[in-house]
Structure formats: C-alpha cells, structure tokens
Amino acid sequence: MKKKLILSLITSATLGFTACDDANRKADSENFNYTVEQFADLQVLRYKVPGFEELNLKQKELIYYLTQAGLEGRDILFDQNGKYNLRIRRLLEAIYTQYPGDKNNTEYKELETYLKRVWFANGIHHHYGMDKFVPGFSAEFLKGAIASVDVDQLPLAEGQSVDEFCAEIFPVIFDRNVMPKRVNQANGEDLVLTSACNYYDGVTQAEAEAFYDAMKNPADATPISFGLNSRLVKKNGVVTEEVYKVGGLYSSAIERVVYWLKKAEAVAENDKQKAVISKLIAYYESGDLKQFDEYAILWVNDLDSRIDFVNGFTESYGDPLGMKASWESLVNFKDMEATKRTETISDNAQWFETNSPVDSQFKKEEVKGVSAKVITAAILAGDLYPATAIGINLPNANWIRANHGSKSVTIGNITDAYNKASHGNGFGDEFIYSDVEKQLIDQYGDQTGDLHTDLHECLGHGSGKLLPGVDPDALKAYGSTIEEARADLFGLYYMGDPKLVELGLLPNNDAYKAEYYNFLMNGLMTQLVRIEPGNNIEESHMRNRQLIARWVFEKGQPNNVVEMVKKDGKTYVVVNDYEQVRQLFGELLADIQRIKSTGDLNAAREIVEAYAVQVDPELHAEVLERYKKLNLSPYKGFVNPVYEAVTDDNGNITDVVVTYDEGYAEQMLRYSRDYSSLPSIN
Ligand code: ZN
Questions:
Q1: What is the pLDDT of residue 81?
Q2: Which of 228, 366, 601, 660 is the most exposed place for a label (fewest CB within 10 A)?
Q3: CA 555 to ligand 1 center in whole angstroms
C-alpha cells in the first residue's frame, strides 16, 4: 500500500506568501538562503529546523541519536535500487575526489553531473521517472579516469582485475538496453524480470507471485506484510527469501542503525516511546515481520511524545509488485501551533467519513484513531533523501490501520522551504490562464495546498474499507495509483465543502477554487514537464493526478465544465464551473472506492490505462517548450542540516548544535565516508 504524497509541481509554483504564514517563518526567510544548487533536471534546496533550539537537552540528544540511526541506512537503499549502484557510486566518488586531470574538461564536468544525479537518485535510475541515466561522458574517458586513480580506491570484486571490473560495469553505465528501468509498470510484461531494482534475483513475476500467494491465508485477519523486508532469490532452483536483519542481508548497516537506536532508547522521552524503540531493535535483530507489526502498533499509539521518527523498510513504491519496502528514515518533532489545524480535521474524521459520496457498504462505520499533526523534519534519510514526501501516513498494513488507526503527518518546514524557494519563479505567469486565477492562487494557493495535503493524508488514506475477504493486493500493479487517487479525491471533494469554512480551515467559499485550478492544471498539463518526450506516465502519484484530471475533463465535456483553451498559440486550462467539478470529484471518488473495496482488478486496469498513462504528444511538446524557457527544475530535493554533538570531558553530550552551511557534494561525500558500512556487493 502506498501512503504518501509527493509534492505536486504546482504547489511549488505558487506565487507568494499568504496570510497563513506566521510571523516567525517570515522572519526566517529574510536571511536564509533556501537554494543550494541546480543541475540536470534537479534543484537542491535547504530547509530550516525552526524550534530545535527551544527543545531541552534530552530531546536534542534523542534527535541526535535518531538522526545518526537515519543516516546509517543510506547504503541499503542504494543497493535495493540496483545491484551495481554502490560499486558505481564508489567508483565515481573515487574519480571525483582524486582525478588528477583538468576538472574543467567537458567530459569531466559531465561525469560530475552524472555523479550528482546518482547521489540524488540513490542509484543510476531517475528517482521519479525510473529511467536509467544516460551519461554525457564517453567510455574511453571513464576508462582513462579509472586508470588515473589508486587501484585500491576502486570497488573491485574479490580477485577482479580493473579490466574485468570495467567489462562488468561499463554495460550497466553505457548500454541503454541493460537495466533500462528501475521499476517497470508496463502492462503485459514480466514486471520482475524487466525491473532493475534489486528486490528479486533470478525469479520471474509468476514465481514471485506464486511464492507469496502460497503464504497467504485468506482467513487470516491480521496478516503480516509478506515479503516486506527481504530479497527474493532463486538458488539451485529453489525460491527463497534473504531477510534484511542483523546477521542477514545488509547486516553491517543494520547493526549501525541498531547501535544508534540503543542510544536513543536510553534517552527516550517516556516509556511508550522507549517501548517503540525497543521493539524496533528487536525486529531488526530477528527480521520477524510479526514483530514489525507489533512495533507498528506501539508506534501508532505513541501520540504524546514530542519527538517522533520513521526508521526502516517502509514504502513499496520501488517494487514493481508493491510488496518489498525500501529503507527510509525521517526524524521530526511536533509543530505545536500548526498542529491545531490538523487536529481540527482529525477531530471531525467521522463526520467526513459519514458524509462522503461513497456507497455506505464501503464506508467505515467507525473511524478509529486518525491522528494528524504538522511536524518539523530534523533529518531526511534513505528513500526520503534528498527528494522527500511532504506528507506521510503510516503504518501501511490495512488491518493495523483498521484496528489501531494511523498517524498522519504534514512536514511543515519542508513545504515552507518549497514555497519560499519558488516565490516569483515565473511558473504561474506562464501557465495560469488569467489574472483571476492568478489572484486566487496568489491569495490562497499555499494554504489550500497544505490543506489538501492534510486531507489526503489524514482522511483520504484512512477512509473506506475493503469488503470481507478482499485481498489487499488484489489490484496488483494498479493498486498504488488507485490508492493515491482515492486519497486525493477524498481531499478534493471536501476542499469545496462549506464545512471547511465552518471549521475555520478555509477563510471563505472561494478559496478552494485555488486548489481545484492548480490540481486540474497540473494533472492535465504542467506535470508533463517531468516526462521525457515519447514516454508515458509511470509513477503512481502522477498517474493518479492525470487520471482524476482527465476523467473530470472528459465527463464534464457535455456541460463545458473544464476547457482547454488556446490563447496566442498556448494552451491553458479554464474552469467554468467549480461546483460541477466538485460533483465530478465526488462521482469518481465513489467509483474508485468501489474498485478498491471490491478488489476489482479489471476496472482498475481499465480506468488507469484509459486516463492515467498515455500522454498527448503535441501538448507534451508545447508544455516542455514553455517550461524550458523558464529555466526551472522539475524536481527538487534537500540537503540536511548538520548536527554536531558538543561533549564534556567525560563524553557526555552537553548540547547539540545545528548548522546549515554544508554544500551538496560536500554532504554526499561526508555521508559516503562516515555512514557507509555495506560492502559493494551484497
Ligand atoms: Zn498518498
């Protein structure tokens, strides 16, 4: 299951500050530089951690240990994303730091850019588009560069010569036909064999599905998350799991994570939080997914701690079958003031569930424990670094969500950094139809964007239920897109409800239109800036957004609800009737929830393939052309702050100091040096 929202493009393109910015944040922005650097299709930003200084020493110490535990997992993700990734990263880092030749040489510059992209993607495939990077330097250049650095700095396999190493690695870097996609979602292909991710080795999709189907017992009301923490391999003809745990796969990195977690355990804020950390350690030591569920239940019930964290094998976007989880970590503390907003939403969760346009048999009779808060991120790590989600809703296991609830968070300081960095970047001027929409978005865009994220996370994903006996994985490769559509639609439908004004979440009955316009413009047009010419849409959040926008566009045609208008040769989205858009969101929500609740794979396939995947090549070319002129990056990510523990003569921590001046390459090289305990081949 997929539970996170990745920032939509338009959110980062809103035009200015709004009333919802508190004075504190405004003051920050005046002397804080949010941008770090720009290369390829990426922009690296920096975020602040407001409020850290006000935490007490024990809380700072806890955050410090948890951030260390977070950073120690970085290599795991590189290896999960592809089995050559660590070797290629280490090779390039050796060249980058030791190259004796001219560093202004074009090919060297291209190698540098390639390495920066590999760092950003945690591997050689695009973090979002999934396609393998095409190097701008030649094999000859790389060969020469390799010859110029110390042999003992090269990540050679045991007994391997440099020539043998090159023969093994070069096709992976240079041959477009080798491992072309990290996650392949193309209908009809063997998704396991054609995906370059490292969750399966030597098994076919049919073998993987059969392996896990055989484990599942439909009568089990509390099933473990099968396959979540392992690589599935075929050895001597037998399909078997290599489990990620202490003493198993990735042991040397997991041991480091556990080392820091044990320190964190000793300074936990309270017993509940201590129990969470202890159980996580036990799970890392055993690899037992039952213990993982126990941990998730403890975690979801720890609501009083100021500090919170995610650390582990969590989201399964990187597995074409949606079972195996990539490693990630987020350490955070609650933003007390902003959390009042999300508490209002979660306090009314039952009202929203009861009044949704969904058929009553698919609704939850009783919405349990939707806890929602706005958090301040202290560190992003693993699959949340450098590109990150802006909202998270966990745990993912359906039965835990149903019986114990879920925690939903919006990452306030990250959203804020996006908004600040994109202020006045020209995007809105280029793509928004008229001054009417521009004003609307200028005035309400940031606020409605945040609110949609909150609704998506703390109501959308938590809403609805599966009918008894429906396999949670029934929608297979379409499951993620349907789940995201469900969450987005639930939020969109309610954005236009007068209830939100009544609750004080929106200032008036027009504000929601900013989000409707942004969403439709993004889904119909502007998100295409992230797609290479000739490609279709693969990523599930993007598929979801196009699905919703195209469906509403098409169904509204008879009444001209939404139009695509040409003005001076440029295409614009025009919304003629916002109230009808809302009704259409409601209709689609009802159908998507039905598909989810009944596990209707055919209907899921049909609607996703019809609306979510194909790209209009003419419109695509136009959008790319217009975007190119703005000189913006379609993808953004972050460098982390640096935390330094100040100790006394006995080694006790007396303070933790946070600084914000580390550069991108500098941070990546430091992480590769200080938090890199895995061998190159795992
Ligand atoms: Zn989501």
A1: 98
A2: 366
A3: 24
